[in-house]
Amino acid sequence: MTTATEGEQARGFFGHPRGLANLFGTEMWERFSYYGMQAILLYYLYFSVAEGGLAIDKATAAGIVGAYGGSVYLATIAGSWVADRLFGPERTLFYSGVLILLGHVALAVLPGVAGVAVGLICVAIGSGGLKATATTLVGALYEDGDERRDAGFSIFYMGINLGALVGPLLTGLLQTRWGFHWGFGLAAVGMAIGLAQYTLGRKNLPESGKVVPNPLDGLGKVRAFAVIGIGVAAVVVLVLTGVVNPDNLATIVTWVIATAAVALFAVLLLSKQVDRVERQRVLAFIPMFLVSFGFWSLFQQQFTVLAIYAEERVDLDLFGWQIPPSWFNSVEPLFVVLLAPVFAALWVRLGERQPPTPVKFALGVSFMGVAFLVMALLGFNQGEHVVPPLLLVLVLIIFVLGELCLSPVGLSLSTKLAPRAYTAQMVALFYLSLALGSSVAGALAEYYTADSEPAYFGILGAVAIGLGVVMAALTPFVRKLMNGVR
Q1: Is the separation of the CB atoms in 330 and 164 below 8 Å?
Q2: In whole angstroms, what is the distance from residue 72 CA to residue 218 CA?
Q3: Around Cβ 170, how many Cβ atoms within 10 Å?
Q4: φ, ψ for residue 317 (rounded to 5)?
Q5: Using CA atoms, how far apart are residues 116 and 96, in angstroms rounded to an integer?
Q6: Cα–chain-centroid distance for residue 14?
Q7: Backbone phi and psi for residue 387, each to the nearest 5 degrees, phi listed first
Q8: Strand partners, 321
Q9: How do beta strands 317-318 and 321-322 pair?
Protein backbone atom coordinates (compact mmCIF):
# COMPACT_ATOMS: atom_id res chain seq x y z
CA MET A 1 0.00 0.00 0.00
CA THR A 2 1.33 3.46 -0.94
CA THR A 3 2.10 5.74 1.99
CA ALA A 4 1.32 9.47 2.00
CA THR A 5 4.99 10.31 1.89
CA GLU A 6 5.54 8.10 -1.17
CA GLY A 7 2.54 9.65 -2.86
CA GLU A 8 3.82 13.15 -2.27
CA GLN A 9 7.21 12.12 -3.55
CA ALA A 10 5.65 10.63 -6.69
CA ARG A 11 3.55 13.70 -7.53
CA GLY A 12 5.12 16.55 -5.59
CA PHE A 13 6.10 18.88 -8.47
CA PHE A 14 3.28 19.76 -10.89
CA GLY A 15 2.13 16.15 -10.79
CA HIS A 16 5.67 14.81 -11.17
CA PRO A 17 8.21 13.34 -8.71
CA ARG A 18 9.60 15.92 -6.27
CA GLY A 19 13.16 15.15 -7.36
CA LEU A 20 12.32 16.76 -10.70
CA ALA A 21 12.17 20.15 -8.93
CA ASN A 22 15.78 19.80 -7.73
CA LEU A 23 17.08 18.69 -11.12
CA PHE A 24 15.01 21.42 -12.79
CA GLY A 25 16.64 24.08 -10.59
CA THR A 26 20.16 22.69 -10.86
CA GLU A 27 20.01 22.55 -14.63
CA MET A 28 18.43 26.02 -14.78
CA TRP A 29 21.33 27.65 -12.90
CA GLU A 30 23.94 25.62 -14.75
CA ARG A 31 22.45 26.75 -18.08
CA PHE A 32 22.29 30.34 -16.76
CA SER A 33 26.05 30.22 -16.26
CA TYR A 34 26.79 28.23 -19.41
CA TYR A 35 24.77 30.28 -21.89
CA GLY A 36 25.49 33.53 -20.09
CA MET A 37 29.19 32.90 -20.64
CA GLN A 38 28.79 31.52 -24.17
CA ALA A 39 26.70 34.52 -25.29
CA ILE A 40 29.68 36.85 -24.83
CA LEU A 41 32.52 34.38 -25.49
CA LEU A 42 32.76 34.83 -29.27
CA TYR A 43 32.75 38.62 -28.93
CA TYR A 44 35.45 38.40 -26.24
CA LEU A 45 37.61 36.43 -28.64
CA TYR A 46 37.29 38.65 -31.73
CA PHE A 47 36.54 42.14 -30.37
CA SER A 48 39.54 44.49 -30.46
CA VAL A 49 41.76 45.00 -27.43
CA ALA A 50 40.35 48.52 -27.09
CA GLU A 51 36.87 46.97 -26.78
CA GLY A 52 38.10 44.56 -24.10
CA GLY A 53 38.55 41.57 -26.41
CA LEU A 54 41.49 39.45 -27.57
CA ALA A 55 41.45 40.52 -31.26
CA ILE A 56 41.45 36.98 -32.69
CA ASP A 57 40.42 36.49 -36.34
CA LYS A 58 36.63 35.99 -36.60
CA ALA A 59 36.73 32.66 -38.41
CA THR A 60 39.30 31.31 -35.93
CA ALA A 61 37.28 32.65 -33.00
CA ALA A 62 34.12 30.97 -34.31
CA GLY A 63 36.07 27.74 -34.75
CA ILE A 64 37.23 27.93 -31.12
CA VAL A 65 33.65 28.47 -29.93
CA GLY A 66 32.43 25.55 -32.04
CA ALA A 67 35.25 23.29 -30.84
CA TYR A 68 34.53 24.29 -27.25
CA GLY A 69 30.81 23.54 -27.71
CA GLY A 70 31.65 20.18 -29.22
CA SER A 71 34.09 19.40 -26.41
CA VAL A 72 31.39 20.06 -23.82
CA TYR A 73 29.22 17.31 -25.21
CA LEU A 74 32.17 15.07 -26.04
CA ALA A 75 32.94 15.21 -22.33
CA THR A 76 29.59 13.49 -21.67
CA ILE A 77 31.40 10.25 -22.52
CA ALA A 78 33.86 10.82 -19.68
CA GLY A 79 31.06 11.96 -17.39
CA SER A 80 28.86 8.99 -18.18
CA TRP A 81 31.79 6.59 -17.76
CA VAL A 82 32.58 8.05 -14.34
CA ALA A 83 28.89 7.75 -13.40
CA ASP A 84 28.58 4.16 -14.65
CA ARG A 85 31.92 2.86 -13.36
CA LEU A 86 33.12 4.99 -10.40
CA PHE A 87 30.73 7.30 -8.50
CA GLY A 88 27.17 6.81 -9.76
CA PRO A 89 25.12 9.62 -11.39
CA GLU A 90 24.27 11.59 -8.24
CA ARG A 91 27.81 12.16 -6.95
CA THR A 92 29.20 12.66 -10.46
CA LEU A 93 26.72 15.49 -11.01
CA PHE A 94 27.87 17.26 -7.83
CA TYR A 95 31.60 17.00 -8.61
CA SER A 96 30.95 18.19 -12.16
CA GLY A 97 29.15 21.28 -10.86
CA VAL A 98 32.15 22.17 -8.71
CA LEU A 99 34.45 21.94 -11.75
CA ILE A 100 32.11 24.20 -13.78
CA LEU A 101 32.20 26.79 -11.01
CA LEU A 102 36.01 26.78 -11.02
CA GLY A 103 36.01 27.29 -14.79
CA HIS A 104 33.78 30.36 -14.65
CA VAL A 105 35.90 31.81 -11.87
CA ALA A 106 39.01 31.33 -14.04
CA LEU A 107 37.39 33.20 -16.94
CA ALA A 108 36.41 36.01 -14.59
CA VAL A 109 39.75 36.55 -12.87
CA LEU A 110 42.50 35.27 -15.20
CA PRO A 111 43.41 37.65 -18.06
CA GLY A 112 43.94 36.86 -21.72
CA VAL A 113 44.38 33.48 -23.38
CA ALA A 114 45.34 31.78 -20.10
CA GLY A 115 41.92 32.52 -18.59
CA VAL A 116 40.17 31.30 -21.75
CA ALA A 117 42.15 28.05 -21.83
CA VAL A 118 41.76 27.16 -18.14
CA GLY A 119 38.16 28.33 -17.97
CA LEU A 120 36.89 26.57 -21.09
CA ILE A 121 38.62 23.28 -20.23
CA CYS A 122 37.07 23.22 -16.75
CA VAL A 123 33.61 24.22 -17.97
CA ALA A 124 33.72 21.73 -20.85
CA ILE A 125 34.68 18.75 -18.68
CA GLY A 126 32.31 19.71 -15.87
CA SER A 127 29.38 20.37 -18.20
CA GLY A 128 29.91 17.01 -19.87
CA GLY A 129 29.63 15.23 -16.53
CA LEU A 130 26.60 17.22 -15.44
CA LYS A 131 24.65 16.90 -18.69
CA ALA A 132 24.82 13.12 -18.93
CA THR A 133 24.04 12.49 -15.26
CA ALA A 134 21.23 15.03 -14.86
CA THR A 135 19.36 13.44 -17.77
CA THR A 136 19.95 9.97 -16.34
CA LEU A 137 18.56 11.05 -12.96
CA VAL A 138 15.44 12.53 -14.59
CA GLY A 139 14.85 9.22 -16.36
CA ALA A 140 15.30 7.35 -13.06
CA LEU A 141 12.39 9.29 -11.52
CA TYR A 142 9.88 7.38 -13.69
CA GLU A 143 8.94 3.72 -13.91
CA ASP A 144 8.89 1.98 -17.29
CA GLY A 145 5.68 2.81 -19.16
CA ASP A 146 4.94 5.95 -17.13
CA GLU A 147 3.07 8.25 -19.56
CA ARG A 148 4.39 11.30 -17.67
CA ARG A 149 7.93 10.61 -18.83
CA ASP A 150 8.05 12.76 -22.01
CA ALA A 151 6.14 15.53 -20.22
CA GLY A 152 8.64 15.38 -17.37
CA PHE A 153 11.53 15.79 -19.78
CA SER A 154 9.74 18.74 -21.39
CA ILE A 155 9.36 20.40 -17.98
CA PHE A 156 13.03 19.69 -17.26
CA TYR A 157 13.85 21.20 -20.64
CA MET A 158 11.89 24.31 -19.69
CA GLY A 159 14.21 24.74 -16.70
CA ILE A 160 17.19 24.53 -19.03
CA ASN A 161 15.75 27.30 -21.14
CA LEU A 162 14.78 29.54 -18.24
CA GLY A 163 18.47 29.67 -17.37
CA ALA A 164 19.45 30.08 -21.01
CA LEU A 165 16.96 32.96 -21.31
CA VAL A 166 18.13 35.05 -18.37
CA GLY A 167 21.86 34.29 -18.52
CA PRO A 168 22.69 36.10 -21.81
CA LEU A 169 20.52 39.10 -20.89
CA LEU A 170 22.38 39.76 -17.66
CA THR A 171 25.90 38.80 -18.72
CA GLY A 172 25.48 40.77 -21.96
CA LEU A 173 24.32 43.82 -20.02
CA LEU A 174 27.26 43.62 -17.61
CA GLN A 175 29.66 43.10 -20.52
CA THR A 176 28.50 46.24 -22.32
CA ARG A 177 28.46 48.33 -19.12
CA TRP A 178 31.54 47.15 -17.21
CA GLY A 179 33.44 44.65 -19.36
CA PHE A 180 33.69 40.97 -20.25
CA HIS A 181 35.13 39.77 -16.93
CA TRP A 182 32.11 41.10 -15.02
CA GLY A 183 29.89 39.02 -17.30
CA PHE A 184 32.00 35.91 -16.70
CA GLY A 185 31.88 36.62 -12.94
CA LEU A 186 28.08 36.66 -12.98
CA ALA A 187 28.13 33.26 -14.68
CA ALA A 188 30.21 31.97 -11.74
CA VAL A 189 27.65 33.33 -9.25
CA GLY A 190 24.86 31.52 -11.08
CA MET A 191 26.67 28.18 -10.91
CA ALA A 192 27.35 28.69 -7.19
CA ILE A 193 23.60 29.15 -6.58
CA GLY A 194 22.86 26.00 -8.57
CA LEU A 195 25.31 23.94 -6.52
CA ALA A 196 23.83 25.23 -3.26
CA GLN A 197 20.24 24.33 -4.15
CA TYR A 198 21.32 20.93 -5.52
CA THR A 199 23.00 20.10 -2.21
CA LEU A 200 19.89 21.08 -0.24
CA GLY A 201 17.60 18.91 -2.39
CA ARG A 202 19.72 15.77 -2.81
CA LYS A 203 17.47 13.83 -0.44
CA ASN A 204 14.64 13.93 -3.01
CA LEU A 205 16.64 12.19 -5.74
CA PRO A 206 16.05 8.50 -6.48
CA GLU A 207 18.13 5.95 -4.60
CA SER A 208 19.11 4.36 -7.90
CA GLY A 209 21.08 7.52 -8.69
CA LYS A 210 23.48 6.71 -5.85
CA VAL A 211 24.24 3.24 -7.22
CA VAL A 212 27.22 2.57 -9.51
CA PRO A 213 25.60 0.47 -12.29
CA ASN A 214 28.73 -1.28 -13.58
CA PRO A 215 31.57 -0.71 -11.06
CA LEU A 216 35.24 -1.31 -11.88
CA ASP A 217 37.36 -3.62 -9.79
CA GLY A 218 40.69 -2.47 -8.38
CA LEU A 219 42.78 -3.53 -11.39
CA GLY A 220 40.26 -2.00 -13.77
CA LYS A 221 40.56 1.36 -12.03
CA VAL A 222 44.35 1.28 -12.32
CA ARG A 223 44.15 0.54 -16.05
CA ALA A 224 41.52 3.21 -16.63
CA PHE A 225 43.49 5.95 -14.90
CA ALA A 226 46.64 4.92 -16.77
CA VAL A 227 44.83 5.36 -20.09
CA ILE A 228 43.48 8.74 -18.93
CA GLY A 229 46.97 9.88 -17.95
CA ILE A 230 48.42 8.85 -21.30
CA GLY A 231 45.61 10.64 -23.12
CA VAL A 232 46.10 13.88 -21.19
CA ALA A 233 49.86 13.77 -21.79
CA ALA A 234 49.34 13.21 -25.53
CA VAL A 235 47.00 16.23 -25.78
CA VAL A 236 49.51 18.44 -23.94
CA VAL A 237 52.31 17.37 -26.31
CA LEU A 238 50.16 18.00 -29.40
CA VAL A 239 49.27 21.50 -28.19
CA LEU A 240 52.83 22.43 -27.19
CA THR A 241 54.24 21.24 -30.53
CA GLY A 242 51.62 23.17 -32.51
CA VAL A 243 49.99 20.11 -34.07
CA VAL A 244 46.75 21.27 -32.47
CA ASN A 245 46.26 25.01 -32.77
CA PRO A 246 43.36 27.52 -32.85
CA ASP A 247 43.10 27.39 -36.65
CA ASN A 248 42.54 23.62 -36.90
CA LEU A 249 40.91 23.04 -33.51
CA ALA A 250 37.33 22.75 -34.81
CA THR A 251 38.31 20.22 -37.50
CA ILE A 252 40.32 18.07 -35.08
CA VAL A 253 37.55 18.09 -32.47
CA THR A 254 35.04 17.09 -35.18
CA TRP A 255 37.07 14.03 -36.13
CA VAL A 256 37.65 13.08 -32.50
CA ILE A 257 33.91 13.27 -31.78
CA ALA A 258 33.02 11.25 -34.89
CA THR A 259 35.53 8.57 -33.89
CA ALA A 260 34.19 8.53 -30.33
CA ALA A 261 30.61 8.11 -31.58
CA VAL A 262 31.54 5.16 -33.80
CA ALA A 263 33.51 3.57 -30.94
CA LEU A 264 30.68 4.00 -28.44
CA PHE A 265 28.11 2.53 -30.84
CA ALA A 266 30.48 -0.41 -31.32
CA VAL A 267 30.79 -0.93 -27.57
CA LEU A 268 27.02 -1.01 -27.12
CA LEU A 269 26.41 -3.27 -30.10
CA LEU A 270 29.18 -5.77 -29.30
CA SER A 271 28.92 -5.93 -25.51
CA LYS A 272 27.94 -9.29 -24.02
CA GLN A 273 25.89 -7.40 -21.44
CA VAL A 274 23.51 -6.22 -24.18
CA ASP A 275 20.79 -8.67 -25.21
CA ARG A 276 19.15 -9.03 -28.65
CA VAL A 277 16.26 -6.61 -28.06
CA GLU A 278 18.58 -4.00 -26.53
CA ARG A 279 20.93 -4.36 -29.51
CA GLN A 280 18.10 -3.76 -31.96
CA ARG A 281 17.12 -0.64 -30.05
CA VAL A 282 20.69 0.66 -30.30
CA LEU A 283 20.55 0.04 -34.07
CA ALA A 284 17.30 2.01 -34.21
CA PHE A 285 19.09 4.96 -32.65
CA ILE A 286 21.68 5.21 -35.47
CA PRO A 287 19.51 7.00 -38.09
CA MET A 288 18.10 9.28 -35.40
CA PHE A 289 21.66 10.05 -34.27
CA LEU A 290 22.49 11.17 -37.82
CA VAL A 291 19.36 13.33 -38.08
CA SER A 292 20.13 14.81 -34.68
CA PHE A 293 23.66 15.64 -35.87
CA GLY A 294 22.24 17.44 -38.90
CA PHE A 295 19.83 19.37 -36.70
CA TRP A 296 22.51 20.55 -34.26
CA SER A 297 24.91 21.50 -37.07
CA LEU A 298 22.40 24.20 -37.98
CA PHE A 299 21.01 24.98 -34.55
CA GLN A 300 24.40 25.59 -32.91
CA GLN A 301 25.26 28.23 -35.50
CA GLN A 302 23.35 30.70 -33.34
CA PHE A 303 26.59 30.84 -31.30
CA THR A 304 28.91 31.13 -34.32
CA VAL A 305 27.60 32.37 -37.68
CA LEU A 306 24.35 33.87 -36.35
CA ALA A 307 26.25 35.62 -33.55
CA ILE A 308 28.47 37.34 -36.13
CA TYR A 309 25.36 38.02 -38.24
CA ALA A 310 23.60 39.69 -35.30
CA GLU A 311 26.60 41.92 -34.57
CA GLU A 312 27.29 42.91 -38.20
CA ARG A 313 24.11 42.63 -40.24
CA VAL A 314 21.23 43.37 -37.85
CA ASP A 315 20.10 46.93 -37.11
CA LEU A 316 20.84 47.12 -33.36
CA ASP A 317 19.69 50.72 -32.89
CA LEU A 318 16.59 50.99 -30.68
CA PHE A 319 15.60 54.65 -30.34
CA GLY A 320 19.25 55.67 -29.94
CA TRP A 321 20.18 52.75 -27.64
CA GLN A 322 22.32 49.89 -28.96
CA ILE A 323 20.91 46.44 -28.29
CA PRO A 324 23.69 44.10 -27.09
CA PRO A 325 24.02 41.50 -29.88
CA SER A 326 24.35 38.79 -27.23
CA TRP A 327 20.69 39.41 -26.32
CA PHE A 328 19.57 37.49 -29.41
CA ASN A 329 20.80 34.37 -27.58
CA SER A 330 17.84 34.85 -25.24
CA VAL A 331 15.18 34.92 -27.96
CA GLU A 332 15.24 31.19 -28.62
CA PRO A 333 15.06 30.08 -24.95
CA LEU A 334 12.32 32.69 -24.29
CA PHE A 335 10.03 31.00 -26.78
CA VAL A 336 11.04 27.56 -25.55
CA VAL A 337 9.86 28.62 -22.09
CA LEU A 338 6.59 29.86 -23.59
CA LEU A 339 5.99 26.86 -25.85
CA ALA A 340 7.49 23.93 -23.89
CA PRO A 341 4.39 23.63 -21.64
CA VAL A 342 2.23 23.62 -24.75
CA PHE A 343 4.24 20.80 -26.30
CA ALA A 344 4.30 18.89 -22.99
CA ALA A 345 0.52 19.16 -22.64
CA LEU A 346 0.07 18.19 -26.30
CA TRP A 347 2.10 14.99 -25.95
CA VAL A 348 0.21 14.02 -22.77
CA ARG A 349 -3.19 14.80 -24.31
CA LEU A 350 -2.43 12.81 -27.47
CA GLY A 351 -1.08 9.87 -25.45
CA GLU A 352 -0.81 6.85 -27.74
CA ARG A 353 -1.97 8.99 -30.70
CA GLN A 354 1.08 11.29 -30.64
CA PRO A 355 3.57 11.03 -33.54
CA PRO A 356 6.23 8.37 -33.03
CA THR A 357 9.70 9.58 -32.13
CA PRO A 358 11.22 9.14 -35.64
CA VAL A 359 8.51 11.45 -37.04
CA LYS A 360 9.25 14.02 -34.33
CA PHE A 361 12.92 13.90 -35.35
CA ALA A 362 11.94 14.41 -39.00
CA LEU A 363 9.82 17.43 -38.07
CA GLY A 364 12.63 18.89 -35.94
CA VAL A 365 15.31 18.87 -38.64
CA SER A 366 12.80 20.06 -41.28
CA PHE A 367 11.92 23.13 -39.20
CA MET A 368 15.64 23.97 -39.07
CA GLY A 369 15.77 23.70 -42.84
CA VAL A 370 12.90 26.14 -43.17
CA ALA A 371 14.63 28.59 -40.80
CA PHE A 372 17.79 28.54 -42.89
CA LEU A 373 15.82 29.07 -46.11
CA VAL A 374 14.36 32.20 -44.51
CA MET A 375 17.93 33.30 -43.69
CA ALA A 376 18.82 32.72 -47.36
CA LEU A 377 16.08 35.13 -48.41
CA LEU A 378 17.31 37.73 -45.91
CA GLY A 379 20.77 37.40 -47.46
CA PHE A 380 19.67 39.29 -50.56
CA ASN A 381 19.39 42.44 -48.39
CA GLN A 382 23.05 43.49 -48.48
CA GLY A 383 24.85 45.94 -46.20
CA GLU A 384 25.84 46.39 -42.57
CA HIS A 385 23.17 46.79 -39.86
CA VAL A 386 20.30 46.68 -42.37
CA VAL A 387 18.33 43.57 -41.31
CA PRO A 388 15.36 44.36 -39.04
CA PRO A 389 15.84 42.59 -35.69
CA LEU A 390 12.32 41.12 -35.76
CA LEU A 391 13.23 39.08 -38.83
CA LEU A 392 16.07 37.40 -36.93
CA VAL A 393 13.63 36.87 -34.06
CA LEU A 394 11.26 35.11 -36.50
CA VAL A 395 14.05 32.77 -37.60
CA LEU A 396 14.87 31.91 -33.99
CA ILE A 397 11.20 31.13 -33.28
CA ILE A 398 11.32 28.57 -36.09
CA PHE A 399 14.44 27.20 -34.38
CA VAL A 400 12.25 26.69 -31.29
CA LEU A 401 9.63 24.66 -33.15
CA GLY A 402 12.33 22.33 -34.39
CA GLU A 403 14.06 22.10 -31.03
CA LEU A 404 10.89 21.15 -29.15
CA CYS A 405 10.16 18.39 -31.65
CA LEU A 406 13.63 16.86 -31.33
CA SER A 407 15.69 17.81 -28.29
CA PRO A 408 13.59 16.94 -25.20
CA VAL A 409 12.20 13.94 -27.07
CA GLY A 410 15.73 12.85 -27.91
CA LEU A 411 16.77 13.05 -24.27
CA SER A 412 13.81 10.91 -23.28
CA LEU A 413 14.44 8.46 -26.13
CA SER A 414 18.06 7.91 -25.12
CA THR A 415 16.95 6.73 -21.67
CA LYS A 416 14.20 4.50 -23.11
CA LEU A 417 16.40 2.78 -25.70
CA ALA A 418 19.40 2.42 -23.38
CA PRO A 419 20.70 -1.05 -22.50
CA ARG A 420 20.49 -1.57 -18.74
CA ALA A 421 24.27 -1.84 -18.32
CA TYR A 422 24.93 1.38 -20.25
CA THR A 423 22.23 3.89 -19.30
CA ALA A 424 24.42 6.98 -18.90
CA GLN A 425 26.54 6.11 -21.92
CA MET A 426 23.44 5.89 -24.15
CA VAL A 427 22.56 9.40 -23.03
CA ALA A 428 26.13 10.35 -23.91
CA LEU A 429 25.50 9.13 -27.45
CA PHE A 430 22.66 11.62 -27.84
CA TYR A 431 24.95 14.37 -26.59
CA LEU A 432 27.64 13.20 -29.03
CA SER A 433 25.27 14.06 -31.87
CA LEU A 434 25.05 17.52 -30.31
CA ALA A 435 28.83 17.61 -29.90
CA LEU A 436 29.41 16.74 -33.54
CA GLY A 437 26.89 19.36 -34.64
CA SER A 438 28.48 22.01 -32.40
CA SER A 439 31.99 21.48 -33.72
CA VAL A 440 30.76 21.43 -37.32
CA ALA A 441 28.85 24.66 -36.64
CA GLY A 442 32.19 26.24 -35.77
CA ALA A 443 34.01 24.76 -38.76
CA LEU A 444 31.29 25.94 -41.17
CA ALA A 445 31.86 29.56 -40.11
CA GLU A 446 34.93 29.52 -42.35
CA TYR A 447 32.62 29.41 -45.39
CA TYR A 448 30.29 32.19 -44.25
CA THR A 449 30.54 35.75 -45.57
CA ALA A 450 27.89 38.42 -46.01
CA ASP A 451 28.19 38.07 -49.81
CA SER A 452 27.70 34.28 -49.73
CA GLU A 453 24.64 34.31 -47.46
CA PRO A 454 21.96 33.20 -50.00
CA ALA A 455 24.01 30.18 -51.11
CA TYR A 456 25.35 29.37 -47.61
CA PHE A 457 21.98 29.35 -45.85
CA GLY A 458 20.09 27.99 -48.87
CA ILE A 459 22.24 24.88 -49.34
CA LEU A 460 22.24 24.01 -45.61
CA GLY A 461 18.47 24.55 -45.41
CA ALA A 462 17.80 22.26 -48.37
CA VAL A 463 20.04 19.51 -46.93
CA ALA A 464 18.20 19.69 -43.58
CA ILE A 465 14.79 19.32 -45.22
CA GLY A 466 16.13 16.38 -47.22
CA LEU A 467 17.23 14.70 -43.98
CA GLY A 468 13.73 15.14 -42.61
CA VAL A 469 12.16 13.48 -45.66
CA VAL A 470 14.53 10.50 -45.42
CA MET A 471 13.84 10.09 -41.69
CA ALA A 472 10.10 10.13 -42.27
CA ALA A 473 10.46 7.46 -44.96
CA LEU A 474 12.52 5.23 -42.63
CA THR A 475 10.04 5.51 -39.75
CA PRO A 476 8.32 2.07 -40.18
CA PHE A 477 11.68 0.25 -40.25
CA VAL A 478 13.06 2.20 -37.28
CA ARG A 479 9.91 1.63 -35.20
CA LYS A 480 10.23 -2.11 -35.75
CA LEU A 481 13.77 -2.06 -34.37
CA MET A 482 12.60 -0.03 -31.35
CA ASN A 483 10.57 -3.08 -30.18
CA GLY A 484 7.59 -1.24 -28.72
CA VAL A 485 9.37 1.91 -27.50
CA ARG A 486 7.60 5.01 -28.84
Answers
A1: yes
A2: 29
A3: 18
A4: -80, 120
A5: 19
A6: 25
A7: -85, 125
A8: 318
A9: antiparallel
